[in-house]
Specification:
The longest helix is centred in the first third of the chain and has 22 residues, at 26-47. By secondary structure, the protein is mainly α. It has a single domain (8-190), classed as Hypothetical protein af1432, CATH 1.10.3210. The chain is built from 10 helices and no strands. It has helices at 11-23, 26-47, 51-60, 63-66, 76-90, 95-106, 117-132, 134-145, 150-168, 172-190. The structure holds fe (ii) ion (2 copies). One fe (ii) ion (FE2) binds next to helix 2.
Amino acid sequence: MVPEHTLPGSELAAKCAALARAEAEPIYYERHILPVVAYSIELAREVGADRKVVEVAAWLHDIARFRLKQLHRGTHELKGAEEARKVLKQLGADAEFIDRVARCIQCHVDGRQASTLEEKVLVSADGLAHIEHVEWLFFVALRDQYPGDLKNAERWTRQKIDFAWKHKIVLRQAKEKARQKYAAAIKILTSSH
Ligand SMILES: [Fe+2]
Ligand SMILES: [Fe+2]
């Protein structure tokens, strides 16, 4: 069930939400897309960022992953920004809004590239969702990256959440929300070593 705070705040956001729901793998939608949207809205409220921009950017931020099957850092965010531009143009969004959303998507992999408040909100929300749903990352690790290889799956997952903690969660408010969850996840992932 979609938490109330992730209900789309505008008609445009509702259309982007419907697109993500229709195209993303259901478990990925539930364990990653929805949490990113929820954290984006929450953080936008806390830091005074533009909710409309971050909400639309959050629904579409991984469009390269679920529509174009582009999974790699470097291409994933650039192709995603490009594809989001096309989608938003078709939906009739104005050019300035499209630019702001596309820039958020382009910077969502590494917080060191984020400059506006909205860009920092999205990359922080993405990092928070990784840490909160470490079970999703571990599932991906065992299913797609290292099938049947527990130790390497753990190592890969740990690298992902370390990166999220160090380089994605750039907002202080987000760091506070992530601190305990990060410590717990690290404890689980290192307990067998
Ligand atoms: Fe992504
Ligand atoms: Fe993501």
